[in-house]
Amino acid sequence: MVALLVALALVICAAAATCLHPRDTTAVSLHFGYSREEGPLTWAGIPSAHNSSADWSVCRLGRHQSPIVIYTDTLKPLPPGSVAVAISNVDAGKALLENLGTTLEVAGLMGVLKYGGMGYDFQQLHFHTPSEHRIDDEYFPLEMHLVFKAPDASLAVTGVLFQLGTSTTPNPLLTNIFLNLALVSNPHTNTTTGALDFSALTHNLTTTPSLFSYNGSLTTPPCTEGVAWFVLGEPQTGYLDVELYNAVKGVMKFNARYSQNGPGGVNLLELAREIGNNGTVLTSPTDIRFTSVQNWNFVKFYRRLVSIVYS
Ligand SMILES: *[C@@H]1O[C@H](CO)[C@@H](O)[C@H](O)[C@H]1NC(C)=O
Ligand SMILES: *[C@@H]1O[C@H](CO)[C@@H](O)[C@H](O)[C@H]1NC(C)=O
Ligand SMILES: *[C@@H]1O[C@H](CO)[C@@H](O)[C@H](O)[C@H]1NC(C)=O
Ligand SMILES: *[C@@H]1O[C@H](CO)[C@@H](O)[C@H](O)[C@H]1NC(C)=O
Ligand SMILES: *[C@@H]1O[C@H](CO)[C@@H](O)[C@H](O)[C@H]1NC(C)=O
Description:
The chain has 311 residues and is α+β, with helices and mostly antiparallel strands.
C-alpha cells in the first residue's frame, strides 16, 4: 500500500508547487443558508423563490440524501486498504483558504482517490461545524470534507471527523490550513494557507479499519445524489486544538445539514409533509421502508401506529 501511495503521489505531482489547478468555477449562485427560511428545511424551494430554473427538488424528495447517522452495528466498515488517497503537499502561500459564506474551503490542491477501479480527482476540501455525519448518534465538533470527481463527473467525498483534544502538539494540518483565519472572518474573502502536509491524513484514510462507505448525496444544494461517501468513523483523538476550534467556529458559525433518513428510506421532508396533510402517513404496512441506519425510536413508534391502524 505504501508503494501504491508513493506511485499515486508521483502521478499527481512531481513538484507540488508547480502543479496547482484552478478551482471548479461552476459554483452555485443561488443563496442558501442554515437558518430560518434559507435553511435546509426549505432548500428545495429556493430556486422557485428566485425565479430560477435550477432544480433542487431532490433535497426534499431524494431517498439517498446525506448526511446520515452511521450505526456501527449495522453498517460494517470497509476492509483497510479499500480506498487509496493521495493529496499533494504544498508550500506556505500556495493554497487558498476562502470564506464562501457557507463554509471555509481550500482550493488549489491536487490529489486522487481510487476505489473499486474508479479514479477521482481532488477538487477542494471544506469544513462543517458541528459534524454532519454522526456515529451511533454522537456528533463531533468539526468535519472535513475532501471532494473528488471522476471523469464521468461522479463524486466521491471523504468525511473526516475531529474530536477536541488537549494535546500540546495540535494537528499541524489544521493549524496550517487556518494559519491566516483572521484574514477571512468575513464572507467572500480569501487568504493563503501555511504549508500543508497531507501524508498522515491520507495514510489514515488508507489504513483505518473504520472507514464507512455508503451511497449518498451532496449535503448542500442542489443535493445531487450518487455521491460515494467514505466517512472516517474513528475520531482523530487529540487532533483539534480547542482555541483553534473556537476561532473556526466563530467564523463558520453553524453549517451542518440535519441527519437525513437512512439510504433508501423515504425523505423525512416527504414524511413530515404527509403527516402534516393527512394526520397519518399510513397507506399499507408494506409502504414502510426503514433501513438499518434508521432512527429506531421512530421505527418503533411507526410500527405501533401500523398495528393500531390495521388491527
Ligand atoms: C418572480 O416572478 C414573479 C412573476 O413574474 C414576480 O412577481 C416576482 O417579483 C419575481 N421574483 C423575483 C425574486 O424576481
Ligand atoms: C481573493 O481576493 C482578492 C481580493 O482580496 C480577489 O481579487 C481575488 O479574486 C480572490 N480570489 C478568489 C479565488 O476568490
Ligand atoms: C491516525 O489514526 C490514529 C488512530 O488510529 C490517530 O491516533 C492519529 O491521530 C491519526 N492521525 C492522523 C494524522 O489523522
Ligand atoms: C446510488 O443511489 C442512486 C440514487 O440516489 C442510484 O441511482 C445509484 O444507482 C446508486 N449507486 C449505487 C452504486 O448503488
Ligand atoms: C395523503 O394525502 C394524499 C393527497 O390527498 C394522498 O394521495 C395520500 O394517499 C394520503 N396518504 C394517506 C396515507 O392517506
